[in-house]
Amino acid sequence: MTAATVVWFRLDLRLSDNPALHAAAARGGAVIPLYIWSPDEERPWQPGGATKWWLHHSLEELAARLERLGSPLVLRSGSSDQVLEDVARECGADAIYWNRRYEPHLAKRDAAVERKLSGRWNVATFNSALLREPDTIATKQGTPFQVFTPYWKACLATATEHEQDVVEAPRRMTPPLKPLKSERLSDWKLLPRRNWADHFREFGVPGELGARKRLSSFLNKGLDEYEAERNRPDHEGVSRFSAHLHFGELSPREVRDALRLHAHQGDGAAKKAAEAFLRQLYWREFAHHLLHHFPHTDRKPLREQFAKFPWTSDAAKLRAWQRGQTGFPIVDAGMRQLWRTGWMHNRVRMIVASFLVKDLLLSWQAGAAWFWDTLVDADLANNSLGWQWTAGCGADAAPYFRVFNPTSQGEKFDPEGDYVRRYVPELAKLPTKWIHRPEEAPADVLAKAGVTLGKDYPRPIVDHGRARDAALAAWRKIR
DNA sequence: TTTTGAGTTGTTCGA
DNA sequence: GTCGAACAACTCAAA
User: Fold this and answer.
1) A387-412, pLDDT tens digit by residue?
2) What number of CA atoms fall less than 13 Å from residue A32's CA on the CB side?
3) Cβ atoms of residues A315 and A309 within 8 Å
4) Strand B atom within 7 Å of A151 CB
5) Residue A228 pLDDT
6) Residues 6+ apart with CB under 8 A from A478
7) For chain A, first and last CA: distance in Å?
8) Distances from the Cα of A3 to the Cαs of A6, A15, A117, A401, in angstroms?
């Protein structure tokens, strides 16, 4: 009789196209799915508040699916190596499988776990999360890529020999002879104490089922308009895959195959749309590539001269930004969307990030920390790349003189003001002409809309023109 | 080693 | 109102 296999679940909370699970089931013996809660091992990036909410519900759903397949999910907390050892002993397993993580500090932890266990158990690791693992691609000089476009071209040019096929979900699973004891998910206290998360489902539904539904609805309506619509926070123009991809509820390989099918069955426009979206998916790959090869970039700038950039610290301004009380409607709408729904549209992420870094001269690390805690899709690689890109200190960074003007960005990408009205309801009655510049509205217009500036809605906390000049001056200092 | 072409997402000014 | 150029160099990646 084949012995049992422990499958250590992490950011791969799905049954379909899960290589570790698939390989374990294929062995024919018992399969013991295990999730270990060990936030201390993830320091300094323990899961943030919004992420924990998503994780809770995703685990709940995964547990229900595994139960139906025949082998219930085992929940344990403690140090990973110890728990793996305990569980493997308790069920008499001879093998331990998992899908790899790539965040440098966790890859290091995993390597230590593997060293410790591999003497006694057959340990095997797999790739569930990426289309291209970071070490499988390099420039012709053998160095890591630091510019997206050549990275993307090189990925495409060499895709076939590196492509991993999708594997099926197991149809049923053999449980261990004796049921293993499992902790109660609720005891981990992943849900916020108060009602913070009440509206997180406006963004999406945690779990593999929610991910599948999102994938098919995006392919049916959304993908073909993606290029035109993806910059419109007032519309439903983006995929909203982010949290599903982060938690591995959605396989990037399944997305890739679905895009391919869409391109194949459709016309030239469908082909273009599929490629445009695939390109975005490769930004995620690129982020993982960078963080892997430049492991300090979660905390420090990739470009060294930025280490001495004269960031300021102003708790009141940071707080105004966090709470969506800056007096710039598009910024405030974005920050409130984040707080309310656990997610923010990508165009608005750029606007609020530029505002923090260039208008307020607060460090990108302060912004990254807030996003880490409040985004349900918080992902170390994506978060680090995004913030460094905005701050101008990262790979492929925006030139320093590219400073977003929050007013014109609002007017360009939320032209009717619908997005602002939705998340900044105190401005809802302002005519569109003034919705992005309430401080310029005539007194009678404000009165009619029921807005008293400084009372119902703040005046701008900075003068953008002057703030821009100050940012450029600060940049010149470190040049 | 040196050269060359190119680089996600912007803003402002002046014709 | 629209359009192109300037912003200001720098670094990467390939030849």
Assistant:
1) 999 998 888 777 777 899 999 999 99
2) 30
3) no
4) no
5) 86
6) A305, A306, A308, A309, A310
7) 67
8) 10, 21, 16, 62
The structural domains of chain A, with segments of one domain joined by +, span: 4-128, 130-166+206-293, 304-478
Q: Which residue from A77, A43, A49, A48 is spatially nearest to A185, judged by alpha carbons?
A: A77
Question: What's A357's DSSP letter?
Answer: I
3-class SS shares of chain A: helix, strand, coil, % to 5: 55, 5, 35
Quote the CA–CA distance of A435 and A429 in Å, as a whole number: 9
* DSSP summary character for residue A457: B
Structure tokens given for A472: 């450029």
pLDDT at residue number A447: 97
Q: Which nucleotides of B are covered by protein (CB under 7 A)?
A: 6-12
Query: Which residues of chain A, if any, have pLDDT below 70?
Result: 1
Query: How many Å apart are CA A164 and CA A23, to the nearest integer?
Result: 14
User: Between the CA of A147 and the C1' of C11, what is the distance in angstroms?
Assistant: 9
A236/C10 CA-to-C1' distance in Å = 38
A283 touches strand B (CB under 7 A): yes
Is any atom of strand B within 7 angstroms of residue A268's beta carbon?
no
Residue A109, CB, strand B, below 7 Å: no
At the topology level, CATH places domain A4-128 in Rossmann fold (3.40.50)
- CATH (one of 1.10.579.10, 1.10.418.70, 3.40.50.970, 1.10.10.10) for A304-478: 1.10.579.10
CATH code assigned to A130-166+206-293? 1.25.40.80
Mean pLDDT rounded to a whole number for chain A: 95
Q: Which nucleotide is nearest to A403 (CA to C1')?
A: B10
* Residues in contact with strand C, defined as Cβ under 7 Å from any of its atoms: A 139-141, 143-147, 150-151, 154, 303, 399, 401, 472, 479
* % pLDDT > 90, chain A: 88
pTM exceeds 0.85, yes or no: yes
pLDDT digits (tens, 9 = 90+) for A64-99: 999 999 999 999 999 999 999 999 999 999 999 999
CA of A142 to C1' of C10 (A): 22
CB-based burial label for A126 (10 Å; 0-12, 13-18, 19+) = buried
Inter-residue contact A322 to A370 (CB < 8 Å) = yes
